TrEMBL record:
This is cyclic-guanylate-specific phosphodiesterase. The chain holds residues 452 to 739 of 739 of the full protein. Residues 24-278 form the EAL domain.
């Protein structure tokens, strides 16, 4: 009986695998269509100064509006795009779109705005990556100082020498680089001083529990101290509450990103956000 049970569980498991695989294949096909039919678009989440909420930059986040399935999260489709190699094409489109938009914002008077773009590991290590970056900057006329790339620590640690080379070239071009989801991968801390980096992004999972969990609070404090000693800017992602903000300010975190200040927004909403922040900064000053 036990064997039988085990057997049927195995079949169930096989079926599940087959289904997952099919869903992936379906999605891969849909993604190819999506690119041609312009179902992808970018939203932008503001990053602000922790002290007063002034805009410091934005992060481009890709969105997929599927005609039948509705909204599909990037957390779901980006890994599949990676698996199939489609991320190279989609990633280039994202980079182009983000740079074009940032250039447009500059022309509209939002001067000095820095835009961060997420770069997947495969894309980062791809042979044509640096050329793609160069091409997109030329095509859009965006000054490289206003482009920041967000990379997760895993890729840097797996491919240390190749990553160092790429990071150095990006740095020489004047781009900024930040480590995304910092603290969730296995960083070898000594590499942090050899990589030319600008910023560490503390992962949301630590921020979630900053007011309730002593261990997470210690980790955050340690990351902030580490960043200061390495002369890196430190930003916390996923900040939703005033109490989280207060704790991060106390520890000296430079920048904040999260629903507390703003969800990701459409490009034409950025001016409204800036004006709203200016008003709240003015009232802060008046109340002092
Ligand atoms: P990420 O780069 O760490 O981006 C942060 C994610 O947290 C975003 O989710 C953002 O909307 C969400 N978030 C920010 N603040 C808050 C908050 O206060 N509360 C909550 N609950 N969530 C918050 P999103 O846009 O769904 O993206 C998920 C992940 O998908 C990203 O994580 C990134 O790894 C990947 N991704 C998104 N866009 C792109 C892209 O253009 N290219 C690549 N390669 N990956 C992308
Ligand atoms: Mg990111
Ligand atoms: Mg992140
Ligand atoms: Mg994250």
């Amino acid at each position: 009986l036990a064997r039988r049970n085990g057997g049927s569980q195995l079949i169930e498991f096989d079926n599940e695998m087959a289904e997952t695989e099919k869903r992936w294949l379906d999605m891969e096909v849909d993604m190819r269509v999506a690119q041609n039919k312009q179902q992808f678009y970018l939203m932008y989440q503001p990053k602000v100064a922790s002290q007063n909420g002034a805009l410091r930059g934005v992060e481009a986040l890709v969105r997929w509006q599927h005609p039948e399935k509705g909204f599909i999260s990037p957390a779901e489709f980006i890994p599949i795009a990676e698996q199939s190699g489609l991320i190279i094409e989609i990633g280039e489109w994202i980079l182009l779109q983000a740079c074009r938009q940032t250039k447009q914002w500059h022309e509209q008077g939002i001067k000095d705005l820095v835009c961060a773009v997420n770069i997947s590991p495969l894309q980062f290590l791809h042979i044509g990556f640096l050329d793609t970056v160069e091409k997109v900057l030329q095509q859009t006329g965006l000054d490289p100082h206003f482009l920041e790339l967000e990379i997760t620590e895993g890729v840097l640690m797996h491919e240390v020498s190749k990553s160092t080379e790429i990071l150095e070239q990006l740095h020489n071009k004047g781009l900024k680089v930040s480590i995304d989801d910092f603290g969730t991968g296995y960083s070898s801390l000594s590499y942090l001083k050899t990589f030319p980096l600008d910023k560490l992004k503390i992962d949301k999972s630590f921020v979630d529990n900053i007011t309730s969990d002593d261990a997470d609070r210690s980790i955050i404090k340690t990351i902030i101290d580490l960043a200061k000693h390495l002369n890196l800017i430190v930003i916390a992602e996923g900040v939703e509450h005033q109490s989280q903000l207060a704790q991060l300010i106390e520890y000296g975190c430079d920048e904040i990103q999260g629903y507390y200040f703003s969800k990701p927004i459409m490009p034409d909403e950025l001016n409204t956000f800036i004006n709203q922040q200016k008003k709240s900064i003015a009232s802060l000053v008046n109340n002092q």
